[in-house]
Amino acid sequence: MAIHGGRIRVLKDVAPRDGGRYVLYLLQQANRARHNPALELAIEEANRLGLPVVACFGLLDGANGFPEANARHYAFLLQGLADAKAGLDGRGVGFVMRKGSPAEVAIDLAGHAALLVLDRGYLAIQKRWYREIEAAVDTRIVQVEGDVVVPVEVASGKHEYAARTLRPKLHKVWDDFLEPVAARTVKHQADGLGLTSAIDVTDPARVLAGMSLDTAVAPVKRFTGGETEARRRLKAFLKDGLSGYGNGRNRPEAAAASHMSPYLHFGQISPLEIALAVRAAEGGDADDRGAYLEELIVRRELAMNHVFYTEDYASYDHAIPDWARKTLAEHAEDPRPHRYTEAQLAEGQTHDAYWNAAQAEMRETGYMHNQLRMYWGKKILEWSPSPKAGFERTLRLNNRYFLDGRDANSFTNVAWVYGLHDRPWAKRKVFGTVRYQSENSLRKFDAKAYVRTVERLCAAEKGS
Question: Photolyase/cryptochrome alpha/beta domain location, by residue (predicted)?
């Protein structure tokens, strides 16, 4: 089945290099061996040119590591890469992993490539890598989007105000993009190229131990990285969790979550694969499937739209709309009955037992249910010395502990706490007309059952 033309961008429109030894694919955003349109395009082109395919990965480390990434994030990433390598080996695709930025590794290996294929992410650091590659590589470069259902520019040519403005644009075109990506047969094996991988990712723990990382935030037991595990979890969710998802998704104790967000963040599963599986699932009704697709496509791709069209999405002054900054500034001096330091917040040392439980779940297991994430963020705004300080604290804690931190969804959801993609509400102390969330919101679910669940999860992480 042909790859949708809307997913493909030619970054350097020149002929493939004569005498190239292989087609190179930079495995960067889509870290998987299946349901990956960039990889499938690379295989198509290699078959046409009579060449093998080599996938490469650049591992950032030490002072040049990925911003804010720590041992927790890298453990999950490396587990996923080990799984991806096994899948690539099984298909006859070469895999080369070296230390360096993705741009540095791709530029070096592209010197002997007939063609370079990139996948695509929307964060500023990723866009910078693509620019570096485009400037330095002198052969044909093609980029293929495989980590959203509808590519950002196809859905909208501007920053969208809210989900309600993006939703109809997505619905108008998403059926065209909801087509499966078939696995192509590799006609020319890569095992005779003699390329060596400087890093043996088949032992992820050993690779992790040899890296210079922040180890204070440890890897977790709750989640194992890789496309194999992602698909296992998806299958279990479709069997046991999709039915009732529409009503249960906002109740943390209902176990209705799919837990796909870490796997989506690291590109270990495709949103297209998930969407097609949800559409075809026997469990659940139309409302359940619609509710899930709303989260997977509309809400997630609204976040992609935000980071793509916002120059400095990590900045309070640029990410938060004018009306929200204005009202928060007007109430910045309002009395705050509770104030906590960032260290107290990180350790869950507040007067609010339910907030502390949510923080413990994030700190110890790398995950927090969406319903609690919103409450968690609103309380940090309320308990911080200023709105800007609250925004910066929320983002730092989010990116440090969540497995899916440092993600378009993370930057967008933190900004939502401060008014992004929202409207003015009734005026309150501290918040002004930014939406407030009180302890009464916890009555919508069994908060005590949630605390007990978190206690069990944290005990499991500690091996007790």
Answer: 21-152
More confident: 92 or 250: 92
Average pLDDT over residues 194-217: 94
- CA–CA distance, 117 with 270 (Å, rounded to integer): 18
Distance separating alpha carbons of residues 292 and 276, to the nearest angstrom? 12
Distance, CA of 137 to CA of 212 (rounded, Å): 30
Q: Taking the CB of residue 356, how many other CB atoms lie within 10 A of it?
A: 17
- Cβ(188)–Cβ(50) under 8 Å? yes
Q: Are strands 94-99 and 53-59 parallel, antiparallel or unpaired?
A: parallel
When pLDDT is averaged across residues 167-185 and rounded to a whole number, the result is 96
pLDDT of residue 244: 87
Structure tokens at 184: 């192509």
Q: What values do phi and psi take at 338, rounded to 5?
A: -125, 130
Contact 170, 301 (CB under 8 A): yes
CA distance 415 to 212: 31
The domains found in the chain, sorted by start residue, are 1-147 (3.40.50.620), 148-183+226-309 (1.25.40.80), 316-461 (1.10.579.10)
The predicted pLDDT at position 464 comes to 56
**Residue-wise pLDDT tens digits, 24-50:** 999 999 999 999 999 999 999 999 999
User: What pLDDT is attached to residue 65?
Assistant: 83
Sheet holding 94-99, edge to edge: 8-12, 140-144, 113-118, 22-26, 53-59, 94-99
Stretch (H or E) spanning 118? strand 113-118
Percent of the chain beyond pLDDT 70? 99
Closest Cα to residue 207, out of 106, 54, 61, 29? 61
Distance, C-alpha 293 to centroid of its chain? 16
- Cα separation of 103 and 129, whole Å? 5
Q: How far apart are CA 240 and CA 242, in angstroms?
A: 6
Q: Cα dist. 375→180, 337, 371, 372 in Å?
A: 37, 17, 7, 5
Q: Provide the Cα torsion 81, 84, 85, 91; round to 10°.
A: -170
